[in-house]
């Protein structure tokens, strides 16, 4: 075989490999039902034991909840996007690794946002919206329209749709425009419109340390990273996923 023919075969083989890879993913997650089954499996591998539930009971519960969510999303005009499924599963595995022993609110919020993209809308840039999941692709709903997300540094303007301040900062009105400002530090004054750094809480209008596990709380925002959830009944900070926690009712108990 001459060099030209060999290169042609290699090139063709590369195309076949790429197509096969793409087709495999589309076949594996061909329907929203297959997505829900895979999502439930990933969640339960991470949390069933932590919640004291069997894998099968957990998967049954999580699959049912997922399908219900899909039905609701479809009724809102959103459609299934197979290309977003693996991102969702990867995020779940990352958030609930090590049996859910180090779950954080931030990680769960990120995972929920990634997985919500699996059933998403088709509105284009600058079309009116009320939630991000009405928007197509990676667009976000901001200031009433779908727009590309743009991370903004501290000290820079954040007036336009899609402009989001970087971590540990927030968008604050200053005169006739808005700028990204650093969130307030320990001891600084704070309000709902001028928040504290993520590791702190706003207590009597001043930034204070968050509460440790077993200590009294009124909401999740008061609890520290080691026990980041405020038990609704006991009103104490605790890990979210334990066999007696309310959150575990959604995992097969």
Strands ordered across the widest β-sheet = 1-2
Ranges where pLDDT stays below 50 over 5 or more residues in a row are 3-21
Taking the sheet with the most strands, its summary is: 2 strands, antiparallel
Percentage of residues in strands: 15-25%
> What does the radius of gyration come to?
22 Å
* Contiguous helical run count: 5
**First-residue to last-residue Cα separation:** 64 Å
Estimate percent helicity: 25-40%
Report the order of strands and helices.
Answer: HHHEHHEEEEEEEEEEE
**Strand segment count:** 12
**Alpha-beta classification:** alpha+beta
Shape: flat
Mean pLDDT: 88
Tell me about this structure:
The protein has 253 residues and is an alpha+beta fold. The chain has a domain at 19-120. Helices cover 36% and strands 16% of the residues. It contains 5 helices and 12 strands. The strands form 6 sheets. A two-stranded antiparallel sheet has the order 1-2. The protein starts with a helix and ends in a 15-residue tail after the last strand.
SSE diagram, text form:
Layout: H1 3-28, H2 32-51, H3 55-75, E1 79-80, H4 85-95, H5 105-116, E2 119-120, E3 140-142, E4 145-147, E5 150-152, E6 163-165, E7 169-174, E8 177-182, E9 200-203, E10 206-209, E11 229-230, E12 237-238
Parallel strand pairs: 5-6
Antiparallel strand pairs: 1-2, 3-4, 7-8, 9-10, 11-12
Q: Quick recap of the structure?
A:
With 253 residues, the protein is an alpha+beta fold. Helix content is 36%, strand content 16%.
